[in-house]
Amino acid sequence: MVMTGSPHGVVGIVGGASAVFILGLWDDIRPLGWRAKLAFQVLAAFIPILCDVHVKFVANHFGYVAITLLWFVGVTNAFNLLDVMDGLSCGLAAIAALWFWLIAEQHGRVNDALAAAALAGSAFGFLAYNRPPARIFMGDAGSLFIGFMLAGVAIGQGYSVKTEIGVIAPLLILGLPIFETFFVMAVRWQQGKPVLQGSPDHVPLRMLKMGYTRNCALFTLYGVSAGLGLLAYLVIRMNWERALLAGMAAGSGALLAAIRLASVDTGKK
């Protein structure tokens, strides 16, 4: 995934993020249905695409537009899903933004680095008041905004330093939010629930059922996110064999974690 790193692209990302912020604020004040929110998010995702912010590993116009829309909407909602514990969504966003800043800075992508640094700084500043017990909450306005920003910043990097497999780096950096999304959807589907219906199936809530304290669960997830970011940083410097093995190891770890978490009795079916 690469982008020119031009100010034009950054404006597109910020423009789309501002649109979903308004959507989230509206939803916080007067809740909207999921169809309306999804439709608005898709429209917002077209803003950066029109500014040439899109995945570059697919040449077909329809293909890269579809994948980019899926990426923006998916990551945006992933951070919204994670906002179930004080300090979690905001903290993971700060960690991810730091890794995106480091990668952009080392590749001389000034505009991407500035966007990532601004997001990391604001997230860490907000975390001071959002950590347990939270004094300020993000709401949908905040979680949708940071998710959309991170989706855009992730596309604006250069990952294929040694091999094309380096494109898995953003999937690793955002691994926890992505894992949470697929895990919750899979559990709800297996239980015969609508996948978009709220339920106590979230990873951090299951960790509490396993006996973790809130702070222990929070810092464990921070540590996992930081570790995945480090793995992503190393993957873009590996040859394809090692990068492939690293990706397979991360996937195997995610599968084992999913099996363990799915075995937790949440008390509600």
Structure characteristics:
about 270 residues; mainly alpha; disordered N terminus; globular; single chain
Could you explain the architecture of this structure?
Helix content is 71%, strand content 0%. By secondary structure, it is mostly helical. It has one domain (7-262). The protein is globular and about 50 Å long.
Oligomer state equals single chain
- The number of distinct structural domains comes to 1
Largest sheet, strands/sense/barrel:
none
- Helix content estimate: over 70%
Global mean pLDDT: 88
Q: What is the overall number of helices? A: 11
Flag low-confidence runs: 1-5
Beta-strand portion reads under 5%
Number of strands: 0
Rg from Cα? 18 Å
Structural class: mainly alpha
- The helix/strand series, from N terminus to C terminus, equals HHHHHHHHHHH
Distance between the termini: 40 Å
Globally, the shape reads globular
How would you summarize this macromolecular structure in one to three sentences?
The chain has helices spanning 7-29, 34-50, 61-81, 88-106, 110-130, 139-155, 169-173, 175-190, 203-209, 214-235, 240-262. It is mainly alpha-helical and 269 residues long.
Element layout with pairings:
Layout: H1 7-29, H2 34-50, H3 61-81, H4 88-106, H5 110-130, H6 139-155, H7 169-173, H8 175-190, H9 203-209, H10 214-235, H11 240-262
